[in-house]
Amino acid sequence: MDNTLQILPFTQEDIPAAVELTIAAWSDALADWDKEIARIVCEYSVRYEYQNPALALKIADGAGIKGFIFASDAGGNTAADEWYSVARRSVTEKEQNEILDMVLSSSHGNEDMVACKMGDGDVMLTFFLSSQKGCGKQLLAAMSKLLKSCGYKNMLLWTDITCNHGYYPHHGFELVGEKAFSKYDNEEPFIVYVYKKRI
Fold first, then answer.
1. Integer angstrom CA distances of residue 99 from 33, 92, 156, 159
2. Which of 24, 76, 119, 149 has its CA 20 to 30 A from that of 33?
3. Which of 30, 51, 42, 38 is nearest to 123 (CA)?
4. Is the model's pLDDT at 187 over the cut of 80?
5. For the stretch 76-115, what's the b/e string if a residue is b when 16 or more beta carbons lie within 10 angstroms of its beta carbon?
6. Average of per-residue pLDDT across 77-87
7. d(CA 168, CA 174)
């Protein structure tokens, strides 16, 4: 088995492996959720954020994908919304409402926060996940090179308190916005951060 890591284009066929990585990465945040609900949320997130195949990369070795990164200057993915409308039929109405709240707030509302900060020459990193130390840095460098070759000047993204948001300032990103939501946690606010980096 070849353990050499390679940066490659992410394709539609990579979605199942990306979903598995997402489920593993978000396991703590989704620990109280029904497994089927968690899987739908994770798969919708991957499908929704895979908006521009020309700006989607993965890092993999002979054993499989170790991470992926997506970027887009567009908003939303109607094919993912269609997939979601079918997938959510398999769960109860109460669960559908929980999924809908989670999906709409994280995939739609948070991207709107980023879009408000974007100008000419800006692009949004819509999904960035790595399961192996060092892979994230390689993915980010490869995406920066790709975006620069496409004429973009700045990349922006959103993240939240459940993620390793300290990663971004350490890698040259500047905090340009944040918002606290009280509805996610009764004791402490759920905070979403917006970061920006010159390419």
1. 10, 10, 26, 19
2. 76
3. 51
4. no
5. ebeebeebbeebbeebeeebeeebeebbeebbeebbebbe
6. 83
7. 8
